[in-house]
Fold:
Amino acid sequence: MLPVVHINSRNAFWIVALIVIATLLPFLGETMFNSKGEPREAIVAVSMLNSGDWILPVSNGDVIPYKPPFMAWCIALFSLLAGHVTEYTSRLPSALALIVLVLWSYRFFARNYSWSRAFLCSVVTLTAFEVYRAGFACRVDMLLTMFIVGALYSLYGYWLNGFRRFPWLAVLMMSGAMLTKGPVGVLLPCAVAGVFMLLQGVNFGKAFIKLLLPALAALVLPAVWYVAAYRQGGDEFLRLALEENFGRFTGTMSYDSHVKPVWYNFITVITGYVPYTLLILLSLIPWGRINALDGLRRSRVSRLWSDFKAMEPARKFALVSIVVIFVFYCIPKSKRSVYLLPIYPFIALFIADYITYLAQRGHRALKIYAGVMASIALAASLAFLVIQCGWFPYGVLKGRHALDNAMMITGLEQHASLAKWLLVELSAIAGIVVLWRLRRQSAISSALMAMGVTVSIYWAFAGVYQPAILNAKSDKPVAEVINTLQPEGDVYAHVSTDMLRFFTANYYTGDRIKPFESAEPSSGYLLIGVDDARTFLP
Structure:
């Protein structure tokens, strides 16, 4: 457990590194692809390796990539070392990006603010569920987040050093961001840095010039790929690039994509910061004479601006980053929770401040929160034991999803090995130790114990609970049947919805599934959904 480790400024970085590496790298390949998003990204790397086309490979028979290729390049390079594209190598870029993000955040705030707050900030960032989830996903979002936040940290250093050295690291970060998602990877860091510089008294002309040159330099490497991709893909590529980058922002896409109201962004941040949302809610309850709301009640709106101006520069930069990025992503109609990932390390800093504030006042909420997390670890372990013993009452499963839920429970029942039992038992032991020692611990030790048991829950979740549940939803068994029936050559598919494909099955068959309409085969196997079969087949 964390509290028995003497954490200081000399070993904090290595403790964070050990936690983040142990939380991510051992478990990346445990869960099969089970949604359209992950295999859609991974199949681009498969197509690159199969065809040798690293610029604009065609996958699923007729689909060019919706995003720039940096994520696929990383997957393909890691897969060359592994021999082929796997779930592990497909998720490795996101995991490494999260490792870099967490460690870079620690270094940044330790140097510019406080090592102890930086330690809390880094662990909070890792264990915020939205961030943790993105670090396990074969999606571009965590890689983009690392590049954007890295560019922000680098541009802050550029300002802090009086603009004396050209920010080449920021240029590389913004170039990587643009090659991962598009122009937003250059626009957003420059917008945040520009607002911060203006608030720090840098005149507009100087701030504009000092940011324009790095921004232009960051466009050079992506421009090489965009030109090569246009030469290969022509107007189809240009139309797709414009729609994905500018049409999505202006709401002029040819189809509705993740259209959500403004309040959706507020909800996703609140839920994305689980389990710390629970801690904040607990702290707002008046426990005896200690009430965390007292400070808010005493503060006046007229003091907010003066308090903001008096902030340490690093905290002010964090707050500006949160506000600018959040407002930016409230503008487009298309909204997703992962778009807001770049604000999570900065929010984590203020949560670290808040935890320190509660600890200094001996607030009871920290012990209650630690007890709740320990109880969750124990409850999950007991539930797993009940299922493993075959005691789950399947009769309670009712409704249209009863069969799907039963398959997930069965997956948990059959998903056991010595290593997996050790992970479950470790989280249970962590919960027991926390409950046993909690009464005698200080408030800050309680907070650290809560973080420790949270990490143990995530180990059991990633290594045992999640794979067993989600593997039941995977189309991999369908692909295995296809590979048995036709080990080589193309298989055909019909999907009535224009932008959907059998992404998971196509990944597990090695990108051999082609659209029936464009191929017009005279014979072969056809993959088709139940609803489509009713209308498509004679």
Observations:
- The chain has 25 helices and three strands.
- The chain has a mean pLDDT of 92.
- Strands lie at 491-494, 513-515, 526-528.
- Residues 362-464 form one domain.
